[in-house]
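Researcher: Next sequence.
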Amino acid sequence: MLIKGIQKVTLLDYPGKIACTIFTGGCNFRCPFCQNASLVTHIDDDQILEDDFWQFLEERKGKLDAVCISGGEPCLQKDLKSFIKRIKDMGYLVKLDTNGYMPLVLQDLLTDHLLDYVAMDVKNTKEKYEMTAGVKVDLEKIEKSIDLLKNSLIEHEFRTTIVKDFHTKDDVKAIAKWLYPSRLYLQQFKDSIDVIQKGLTEPSKEELVEMQKEAQQENSQVYLRGI
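Model: Next structure:
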């Protein structure tokens, strides 16, 4: 596994659990607003050794409930399945963060009951997906992953990071309808030195609240996060 970073404790990434989060390197998208640009584009830089990670988990038994695997895009990692199996064998819950562009990997992990929670980023409406993902997108792959999660018994959520340059109230309303009846979290984009495209515009709290109200007309399970 290409582990580029670790957050040793988080109360936010896995709802209701004490977890750590690891960040894998590399991604198949180039979202202009990505706030982990260094994980996406600088995959040859320093990394955390797996042995050090396993030692960390051994030392945290009884203190942590779960491991969140984020990125980048974790499903690009060839040994993701065996990596998760080892985490599960140590008694931890596993949450996967994914962009949903590798539905066969997701399906395999779900079939083998290796995931306890999945958070999938949904970038925008179908019409604006490629613009927002920054690459050419086969929407059938995105829709397959959405359907897998909707039809599974696993706890899951969908997330959309709202950027004023890319999302309107109508867009968010359409996304909420697309994902119904699953939970959708609207996240506030925040500019930083590590974004791929500089100069993008943050939405205000008031604008996000208005988007939430509009979206809840299509799906009552639309929430705000990060404001």
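Model: DSSP finds eight helices and eight strands in the chain. The chain has one domain: 3-225.
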